[in-house]
TrEMBL record:
<dbReference type="InterPro" id="IPR017846">
    <property type="entry name" value="Nict_dMeBzImd_PRibTrfase_bact"/>
</dbReference>
<dbReference type="InterPro" id="IPR003200">
    <property type="entry name" value="Nict_dMeBzImd_PRibTrfase"/>
</dbReference>
<dbReference type="InterPro" id="IPR036087">
    <property type="entry name" value="Nict_dMeBzImd_PRibTrfase_sf"/>
</dbReference>
<protein>
    <recommendedName>
        <fullName>Nicotinate-nucleotide--dimethylbenzimidazole phosphoribosyltransferase</fullName>
        <ecNumber>2.4.2.21</ecNumber>
    </recommendedName>
</protein>
<keyword id="KW-0169">Cobalamin biosynthesis</keyword>
<keyword id="KW-0328">Glycosyltransferase</keyword>
<keyword id="KW-0808">Transferase</keyword>
<comment type="pathway">
    <text>Nucleoside biosynthesis; alpha-ribazole biosynthesis; alpha-ribazole from 5,6-dimethylbenzimidazole: step 1/2.</text>
</comment>
<dbReference type="GO" id="GO:0008939">
    <property type="term" value="F:nicotinate-nucleotide-dimethylbenzimidazole phosphoribosyltransferase activity"/>
</dbReference>
<comment type="similarity">
    <text>Belongs to the CobT family.</text>
</comment>
<dbReference type="InterPro" id="IPR023195">
    <property type="entry name" value="Nict_dMeBzImd_PRibTrfase_N"/>
</dbReference>
<dbReference type="GO" id="GO:0009236">
    <property type="term" value="P:cobalamin biosynthetic process"/>
</dbReference>
<dbReference type="Pfam" id="PF02277">
    <property type="entry name" value="DBI_PRT"/>
</dbReference>
Length: 340
């Protein structure tokens, strides 16, 4: 599959023929659930999680044995406008931190029992300034997409994509503005904690990117190439790769959502294998989730990225699987089953 991707059109073509869910596995999972010692529906969204995992893992009793956290890192040309509270050098420094196990994502992945895969994408070659030209060439975009695809562990039971890239809330806002319009400011928040002057510059960068690309952009993948970052493209590639491997994906916050949204805008069914782990405190994320029609599992006021919210939500998925796989049936426990 990966070898057949050499152009953006290859990705477009493959997006039209994605594998679908295993409805038979879900039917069996519902049957199993109906025998468990609880009123039907009483575990609320935990039951929804089990069905979702079941559809994509093709198991009537899904498993959580091998979750994967994938962190992609890239640098952004638009960081030169001072739109982040931190310097671009922090991207590389954090990659070293991920590798040593010192970041938030490492601790959370440890709690979930997830392997952390880190992929840095040409940190010494930031994307181009997308207020004056496309962020990257088609060749760089395809390459980054394939890095993402290739990073997915084919045996993973759940994928939690994450990112690191100083300036990438600006890139995510530009993606959303190009996909869905509105006012530039609708998509912009404080990111790492910027001041008023930085906020205004950020709005200006996103508004100018719209002026440059708005009339010529063709679809979600084109938006990705024009105003995305290499780590955002790689996340899109990982989400797409997981779909081909039929691995369920827990989406993270605003940046991850923007990556996923470029696939959604290109092909509506492309995110059927994804759940949204949490709602970020970046204001654009709520709007984005309305547009892609997904409701977050958690609301923790996170605004970190790295895949942290996705991994925390993975713990909820583990709780859901524990109930589904470990609970006794009415029959085995000798509990009256009521009017089922
Ligand atoms: C130390 C540190 C660790 C991070 N981990 C994730 N981010 C997050 O913040 C960045 C986006 O915010 P902005 O657009 O304002 O730069 C991304 O790198 C994102 O993953 C971090 C940011 C910092 C400073
Ligand atoms: O929601 C996110 O993904 C996010 C928010 C702020 C900074 N970095 C990431």
């Amino acid at each position: 599959m990966l070898r057949s991707i050499t152009s953006m059109d290859d990705i477009r073509r493959l997006l039209k023929v994605l594998p679908g869910p295993d409805e038979e596995a879900a039917i069996q999972a519902v049957k199993h659930d109906s025998r468990l010692t609880k009123p039907r529906g009483s575990l609320g969204r935990l039951e929804e999680i089990v069905l979702w995992l079941s559809r994509w893992q093709s198991r009537d009793v899904p498993v959580m044995g091998r979750p994967q956290s994938c962190v992609f890192a890239g640098n952004h040309g638009i960081a030169c406008y001072n739109v982040s509270a931190f310097p671009a050098a922090v991207t590389r420094q954090m990659v070293e931190n991920f590798t040593r196990g010192g970041a938030a994502i490492n601790q959370l992945a440890g709690v979930l029992g997830a392997e952390v895969t880190v992929r840095a994408l040409h940190l010494d070659q930031p994307t181009q300034d997308f207020t004056i030209e496309p962020a990257m060439s088609e060749a760089s975009c395809v390459e980054a997409f394939c890095v993402g695809f290739d990073a997915v562990d084919p045996d993973a039971t759940l994928l939690c994509p994450g990112e690191m890239g100083i300036g990438n809330t600006t890139s995510a806002a530009a993606i959303c503005h190009l996909l869905w319009g509105g006012r530039a400011a609708d998509w912009i928040g404080i990111g790492t904690g910027i001041d008023k002057a930085q906020y205004e510059r950020k709005v200006d960068v996103v508004a100018r990117s719209y002026q440059l690309h708005g009339d010529v952009v063709t679809d979600g993948l084109d938006v990705l190439q024009r105003v995305g970052g290499l780590e955002i493209v790689a996340m899109a590639g990982a989400i797409f790769g997981a779909r081909w491997l039929r691995i369920p994906v827990m989406l993270d916050g605003f940046i991850c959502g923007a990556a996923a949204a470029t696939l959604f805008a290109t092909s509506r069914d492309s995110l059927m294998h994804c759940m949204v782990g949490h709602g970020s405190s970046e204001p654009g994320h709520r709007l984005l989730l309305e547009r892609i029609g997904k409701r977050p599992l958690l609301d923790l006021d996170l605004r970190l990225g790295e895949g942290t919210g996705a991994v925390i939500a993975g713990l909820i998925a583990r709780a859901a699987v524990a109930c589904h796989s470990g609970m006794a049936s009415f029959e085995d426990a000798g509990v009256d089953s009521g009017h089922l």
